[in-house]
Amino acid sequence: MKHKTLLTMTFLLAALSANAQDSLQTSVTYDLSAEMAVGTGDFTAYHLTSNRHHVLATRPNTGYVRGAVEAEHPLSRKLMLTGGMDMIASVHADHKAYLQQLYANLRFDKFFFEVGSREHNAVLRNNLLSVGAFAKGTNAKPIPQVRIGTTDFWTVPFTKGWLQIHFEGGYGKFLDSQYRKDIYNDYRDANYKYSTGIWYHQKHLYFRTNPEKRFYVTAGIEHVAQFGGNKYGIENGKYVEKEKSVGLKDFFDIILPRGDKNYFENGAMEDWVFGNHLGSMTVQLSWNINKSHMVQAYLEAPFEDGSGMRKGNGWDGLWGVEYTNKAAGRQWVRGAVIEYFQSTNQGGPIHYDRGDYPEPIRSQITDQVVGKDEYYNHSYYVSYSHYGMTPGNPLITSPIYNKDGFNAFRDNRVKAWHVAVNGDITDHISYLVKGTYREGLGTYIQPIYPKRHSFDALLQGTYTKGPWQVSAAYAFDKGNIYGDCSTFNFKIGYHGKIL
Q1: How far is residue 451's CA from residue 375's CA, in Å, rounded to a whole number?
Q2: Exposure check for the chain: N or C terminus, fewer CB within 10 A?
């Protein structure tokens, strides 16, 4: 969606708010903030940049100022029109000044329709404590989309409260075409292809039993796909350009993995499936110990193709336990998470599928070994990344950290252990502690031996008083994934109201 269209929608919304006869029903708020990170090492420490929508740059000694405005105008008791704009100006970063968010949202009860770029939290994972979701995470800059879905879990009629669903779907487009081209041109020794003009599709569907009961279950699936776009690079010693044009039918075909219509056209072969598909299947068991305390255990199982959906990738997944304290007032422990993440199996090291070959070769192949899923990498789209950062789980180190400029994921076979705790020290001071140890084995195509490792930690304190919020943090990385990085972080923010 073009920025001019989104800007027009936002201005129209602001005009509606300004002209509303009852200003008490119309809300216009703003947020101003500034943040800086100073320290030593090749990067800003991992826990200060991960799962924050790529707001703080990965480069060391960086900072930004940020201003955002949001307006809400009720059209009726259940119909709400919302719009917002969010701008960031950074120093010592890949992007000096840019629009982080620009959106318009129409909400009816628990259903919405939205156009634009907006930061969204994960539906099931704890956005403050967890390592993040595999497919629809919070690690990269927002991708502009047209979206429709529910704002929260919606109780299905005639089930007497026993069944709730949460769904969303949308289409968008990656904005990083020029970034991908520049990385390719600036680091030609490391790269041999890049892609531009990539379209995006995402959706999820979760089912939940009654959360008011002592025990309840949540299960579902989320799915994302890259499709369309152009590919440039070197093949068999020659520079080639390939294009996948996008028509109306393609927006339906991408909903489920289907045969590639361009398999024999323009040499744009990308295996036998149209688009790059990945996602995760989740099951979560919740125990309401009482009204204030809850424990949840969950498994998020990733997939990059059919073998992952059949759970042919062994123990790969995010395994976790979360404790939540919902009691009012000061709580020494507000929440805690223990997680184990593994992505080393990927269906095994060999992929030999008869479906990858045209006739008459296909009918002559009788053996089949399906594996080597290559999480986040792809032959046509190169990588599942946006401006160098994965929109998924940041434990799989993003291409932006490749010092030689390689534009794909070099280390997607990972084992990691993660612990995080947050709580309140006083009525105005809260804390956050995180610690993560990971091991990286590279990829099946290019293994890393001996395996790499890193221990990443964060200690943060936040003071909140009225509209003001001030935080100070120290984070460090030790090991040979990011190197030895040590970063002090300071942030100040103000939330104000115009109407």
Answers
A1: 18
A2: C
> What is the predicted pLDDT for the residue at 312?
79
pLDDT at residue 267 is higher than 70: no
DSSP class of 452: E
Question: How many CB atoms lie under 10 A from the CB of residue 494?
Answer: 14
> Is the C-alpha dihedral spanning 283, 289, 294, 295 positive or negative?
negative
Please give the radius of gyration of the chain, using alpha carbons only, rounded to the nearest integer: 23
* pLDDT-based confidence at residue 436 (cuts at 50, 70, 90): very high
CB 15 within 8 A of CB 7: no
Inter-residue contact 452 to 438 (CB < 8 Å): no
pLDDT in tens, 149-175: 999 999 999 999 999 999 999 999 999
For 488, the token pair is 């002090």
**pLDDT top residue among 348 and 50:** 50
CA atoms within 13 A on the CB side of 147: 28
Confidence band of 486 (pLDDT split at 50, 70, 90): very high
| pLDDT(345) > 60 | yes
Q: Are 284 and 217 in contact (CB under 8 A)?
A: yes
* Distance, CA of 46 to CA of 398 (rounded, Å): 11
24 token code pair: 């008490």
* % the chain with pLDDT above 90: 80
Q: CA-to-CA distance for 359 and 337, rounded, in angstroms?
A: 51
CA 7/CA 26 separation, integer angstroms = 20
Residues with Cβ < 8 Å from 367, sequence gap 6 or more? 352
Query: Is the Cβ–Cβ distance between 333 and 421 less than 8 Å?
Result: yes
CB atoms within 10 A of CB 366: 6
Exposure class string for 302-328: b at 16+ Cβ within 10 A, else e: bbbbbbbbeebbeebbbebebbbbeee
Q: How far apart are CA 264 and CA 358, in angstroms?
A: 9
DSSP, res 61: S
Token couple for 483: 């190197």
Name the average pLDDT for the chain.
90
- pLDDT tier at 17 (50, 70, 90 boundaries)? very low
Q: How many angstroms separate the CA atoms of 105 and 13, rounded? A: 10
Positive/negative CA dihedral, 179, 181, 182, 187: positive
Angle at 279 between CA 444 and CA 436, to 5 degrees: 65
Nearest CA to 375 out of 317, 417, 416 is that of 317
